Amino acid sequence: MNQITEDGQYKVYVDAFRGAETDVTVTISILGTAVGQVNCGTMVSGSSTDSCFIGTITWVGGTGGIGSFTPSGAKAADF
Question: What are the backbone dihedrals phi and psi of residue 3, each rounded to the nearest 5 degrees, phi first?
């Protein structure tokens, strides 16, 4: 995330757009600094593993604010 202008909680998902990938690992960066990493395992487009809930970014302070990341890694049933 490079810029968030409004305070709040932002849920982050990854979607398998096409095909299949094994060992899908996502790194979350806020303002250029890595703050977390989540492994979603195998993701296959069009299947029950085609999306992964990465976690939640909580942002306070508007444009000049600061954020924190809470990882989840749970597979999402719906995207």
Answer: -155, 125
Can you give the pLDDT at residue 1?
A: 61
* All residues at 6 or more sequence positions from 46 whose CB lies less than 8 Å from its CB, including other chains: none
Q: What do you get for the CA distance between the two ends of the chain, in Å?
A: 20
Q: Give the integer Cα–Cα distance in Å for 58 and 46.
A: 30
Contact 53, 36 (CB under 8 A): no
pTM above 0.70, yes or no: yes
pLDDT grade for 74, boundaries at 50, 70 and 90: low
- The 3-class SS string of the chain reads CCCCCCCEEEEEEEECCCCEEEEEEEEEEECCEEEEEEEEEEEECCCCCCEEEEEEEEEECHHHCEEEEEECCCECCCC
